[in-house]
Amino acid sequence: MVHTTDFSEGLIFEDENGQIVEMLHYQHHRKSQARAVVRVKLRNLNTGAVTETSYRPEDKFKEVSVEKRQKTYLYTENGMANFMDDETFEQEALPVEKISAMHKFLVENMHVVGLYINEKFFNVLLPVKLTFSIASTVPGVKGDSVSNMTKMATLDNGLEIKVPLFINEGDKVIIDTRTCEYVERVQA
After folding, report:
1. Fold observed for domain 68-125
2. Where are the domains of the chain?
3. Are the C-beta atoms of 102 and 126 separated by less than 8 Å?
4. Cα separation values, 168 from 105, 129, 143, Å
5. What kind of fold does domain 129-185 have according to CATH?
6. In the sheet where 129-137 sits, what is the strand order?
7. 23 closest CA partner among 36, 39, 47, 1
8. What order of strands is seen across the sheet that includes strand 66-77?
């Protein structure tokens, strides 16, 4: 059994609804006379949906057998994303719907971590931070680095994100794959 005291970022367990989830963030919280709670941000590994919820410290959850193997993303065909095991060179596929949130970040020959739950290829985990080029955005103006305002930009993979005003077309930026948010500009 997994207790709330065992929580750590990256922990995978079965929640109270029978869904397999990954812990993205957790925080123990107590307000004056109120009971303590653990606030968590979870990603459902079946749907990719991210939710926030709270648990009591005495809550228990079912453990799942998790194995991680290095894989290489090859291509997508007929609604299936194909991956090759880096050790055995065997190819396995996952439905694009299952990895829809991560599929937009996949690039041919990209290394990912294959997630096996109860010895079955279940999902993939991407690196937390990836680098992309800005394909299009409105030009930045000198002095825009002072404020914390943002503008929309399209990455070379087609994803639209908010970036600071000083980012220009052709700049390379680091994106957090968990939240699809800008992290920083890559210095040339």
Report:
1. OB fold (Dihydrolipoamide Acetyltransferase, E2P) (2.40.50)
2. 2-63, 68-125, 129-185
3. yes
4. 21, 20, 13
5. OB fold (Dihydrolipoamide Acetyltransferase, E2P) (2.40.50)
6. 160-164, 150-155, 129-137, 172-176, 181-185
7. 39
8. 91-95, 80-85, 66-77, 111-117, 120-125
Burial class (CB in 10 A: 0-12, 13-18, 19+), 82: middle
Residue whose token pair is 């290829």:
121
How many beta carbons lie within 10 A of that of residue 88, not counting itself? 9
* Local confidence pLDDT in tens for the 188 residues of the chain: 888 888 888 888 888 888 888 888 888 888 777 788 889 998 888 777 788 998 888 889 988 888 899 999 999 999 899 999 999 999 999 888 888 778 888 888 989 999 888 888 888 888 889 999 999 988 866 665 666 788 899 998 888 999 988 888 889 999 988 778 899 998 86
Residues paired with residue 154 on neighbouring β-strands, in sequence order: 136, 160
Fold for 2-63, please state it: SH3 type barrels. (2.30.30)
DSSP characters over 30-66: --TTSPPEEEEEEEETTT--EEEEEE-TT-EEEE--E
pTM (predicted TM-score): 0.70
